[in-house]
Design a protein that fits this description.
The protein has about 325 residues and is an alpha+beta fold. The chain has a domain at about 65-165: T-fold, CATH 1.10.3980. The chain has helices at about 55-70, 80-85, 90-105, 115-120, 135-140, 170-185, 285-295, 300-305; strands spanning about 10-15, 30-40, 40-50, 150-155, 155-160, 190-195, 200, 210-215, 230-235, 240-245, 250, 255-260, 275-280, 310-320, 325-330, 335. The strands form 4 sheets. It has an 8-stranded antiparallel beta sheet with strand order 2-3-6-7-10-13-14-15. Strands 1-8-9-16 form a 4-stranded antiparallel beta sheet, with no helix packed on it. Strands 4-5 form a two-stranded antiparallel ribbon. The longest helix has 18 residues, at about 170-185. The radius of gyration is 20 Å and the shape is globular.
């Protein structure tokens, strides 16, 4: 699965707490933390369970199956086969991701588009070396970019142009986090924290009634600079994902190009957004809209969020060459560290 965006945009903070059983005769819920690697990045899962049972085997199995279905790098994955036109039959993972992607494409007026893959590759942000991106080259590729040329017929995906390719990089990690959260809930776990490469979903508050705390990264001046944090947000039963341009970019002749491609122009986006952190009821939604908002820009994205009861966002934007600003929607209690 394409994972050049392997740097953390979000980081979680756990308090070290000694938990005491509040109900006599009851076993206290105790913390369990699991770590691993998946999709070319990390995962961290933390939850509270009375018997401290570990579900690492089930989680690894779920993520392994998901990767084998949706990975761009697995030759016989469902995604790879559909991209090569070897089949048009979707599995459940592909169907969910494509259906949601087409819906968000429509809602964002094309700002979120999972068929932008050929442009991402051509600019050197994907699976291929960068090409000489002249206007004629961009025009030749953009002919077969557009989710409006894709439809679903039962379990089949229909392309109007066989050159159309999919890459769910901007939505798959979020969905995987949701799947792990659902797995934990099926085991009776309600207080949990799932982080897959910075795409996070949390369940109920901790047993001591404290919320999960998410730290928001300060934009770095260089792509490999150490992470620093200015703000935190406290959450329960919420998901969060971030898209940013200050760590993932291409520098050509001294000019920086964002890794986020505008599907309408075929070029890297040009706006003053450094990062967007989106809060939603599920991580798939947060993940997708974080990318869409980077394309839309601060003003348009801000108006979009204001009309949605289910979304909140933090916009970090450059004010000039040295300073940046932070704007959060009213539904968020953004605390300084």
């Amino acid at each position: 699965m394409k994972k050049h965006m392997i740097h953390r945009i979000l980081f979680f903070i756990f308090s070290i707490v000694v938990f005491i059983c509040c109900n006599s005769g009851k076993h206290p819920e105790r913390p369990v933390q699991l770590r691993g690697e998946t999709f070319g990045t990390y995962y961290v899962v933390s939850y509270y369970c009375a018997d401290r049972k570990e579900f690492d085997t089930e989680i690894d199995s779920l993520l392994y199956g998901f990767n084998n279905s949706m990975s761009y790098y697995v030759e016989n994955s469902v995604l790879s086969k559909i991209n090569r036109n070897d089949t048009d039959i979707m599995d459940d993972y592909f169907r969910v991701l494509l259906k949601r992607s087409l819906d968000i494409y429509e809602k964002t007026d094309g700002a979120f588009d999972v068929t932008v893959t050929p442009l991402v590759n051509a600019w050197g942000f994907g699976h291929e070396n960068r090409k000489d991106m002249t206007q004629s080259k961009v025009d030749s590729i953009i002919e077969f970019v557009g989710s409006d040329m894709v439809s679903i017929d039962s379990n089949r995906v229909l392309k109007q142009d066989p050159r159309i390719q999919f890459d769910f990089n901007a939505i798959a990690k979020g969905y995987a986090s949701d799947l792990v959260g659902s797995l934990l809930e099926s085991k009776g776990i309600t207080s949990y924290f799932v982080d897959i490469g910075g795409d996070i979903i949390v369940g109920d508050v901790k047993p001591d009634d404290s919320p999960w705390r998410i730290a928001i990264e300060r934009p770095a001046k260089k792509h490999d600079a150490p992470q620093e944090y200015d703000h935190i947000v406290e959450l329960d039963n919420r998901a969060v994902a971030t898209s940013g341009s200050y760590r993932q970019y291409l520098e050509i002749d001294g000019q920086k190009y964002s890794h986020t491609i505008d599907p309408k122009t075929g070029y890297p986006v040009k706006n003053n957004l450094l990062s967007v952190t989106v809060f939603a009821n599920d991580c798939l939604t947060a993940d997708a809209y974080a990318t869409a908002f980077m394309v839309m820009g601060k003003e348009k994205a801000g108006k979009f969020v204001d009309k949605r009861d289910d979304l909140d966002a933090i916009f970090i934007f450059s004010k000039n060459l040295k300073d940046f600003g932070v704007v959060a929607t009213e539904g968020l209690d953004l605390k300084e560290i």
